Amino acid sequence: MEAEIVGLKFQLESMDTITLEPHYMKGLHAWFLHQIQAYDPELSAYLHDGQGEKPFTLSRLMGPMQWRNSHWLLPARQSYEFYLTLLSGPVIEGMVPWFQQLPKSLTLARQSFRLQKVDLFLPAIAYQDLVMGWNSTKKLELSFLSPTSFRRQGNHYPLPDPRNVFQSYLRRWNDFSGYLVEVEPFLDWIQQCVLIDRHWLESVKTTAGKQGQVTGFVGSVAFALSKKAHDEPDYIELYYALGKMAPYCGTGHKTPFGLGQTRWGWKTGTIHQFLPLQVQFQEQALGQRIDQLTELFLSQRKRTGGERALNICHTQAVILARRELGESLLAIATDLQMPYETAKTYSKRAQKAFKAQAEKS
After folding, report:
1. Which helix (H) or strand (E) holds 339?
2. Over the stretch 250-287, which tens digit does the pLDDT of each residue have?
3. Which residues does the UniProt record annotate as the domain CRISPR-associated protein Cas6 C-terminal (predicted)?
4. Rounded to 5 degrees, what angle do the CA atoms 114, 118, 124 make?
5. CB-hemisphere CA count at 13 Å for 64?
6. Which domains does the chain have, with CATH numbers?
7. CB atoms within 10 A of CB 70
8. Is the pTM of this model over 0.90?
9. Is 265 exposed, middle or buried (0-12, 13-18, 19+ CB in 10 A)?
10. 68 pLDDT exceeds 80?
11. Of the candidates 207, 221, 217, which has an alpha carbon nearest to the alpha carbon of residue 274?
């Protein structure tokens, strides 16, 4: 049977000292899509614009980084890596020509890494293989190595609620496996029968997302089944298959931009084992700055009630906080999916309000 899912590790070397903006993941994402576009524009368009779940995940760069002057500094002649997973047989087949002629370098913000090699990180298998090899009495332990979050009622939900976790896996399963599962009955079973046996979690704010920040969690969770679960053996089989799929598909949303990186097994320690200290500091600092500015702008309004006022103040805060980090207004407007002139107006109002408060103080 042909491969339908696979995980790859790309190993890089910085050719010179490299400086990257906080939101460099957008550049890595764009590099990958441009690579595919060069030989298969239709496949690239599907990866970028296709309806439903994205058939790939992409991790952040992993390796030695320093946080200086609101940018990442990557020393020369250092090793880095990132992970790419593919969730669709046709996508894997369509990318074979690229794998056979991989580029010798990777360019981010006009700065180059040498692409040393690409290795298998997760074996290339078929979806049917996921249902084999699991002990139905064994706890399912998963670790979340990058901030993980879900969308719930229009907001971010940074907790590994079993229903949310397995719903995110089931969406990918239904889109790509070819074995369609009725959603609500299975999720009802998850809610009734899947327990959190133990966990070690910490929350962190990250710069991914259109609104400048996402609150997510990192850490480890052990899921267990209640006695009632064994009334539905088919669901138990699917439960373990989805757990086995987790490192391939990632968990939650924004997985093509580095969120929700998931691994099998339990990883203990502190948050620094999951995020470098500089990443934790920068991301939490940005989130705190946005919260601080939002409260400031709200306090200056005559009418502070209502969701619209909060949204306006939050958008102003996001733009000003990211401008303080040195991002261009055009890049921010593109990320927030708003016209440049609108972003410019928000930026001017935010700067004026901040200046007025400074003068008052």
Report:
1. none
2. 999 999 999 999 999 988 655 545 555 445 555 556 77
3. 142-262
4. 160
5. 9
6. 1-125 (3.30.70.1890), 126-275 (3.30.70.1900), 277-360 (no CATH)
7. 15
8. no
9. exposed
10. no
11. 217
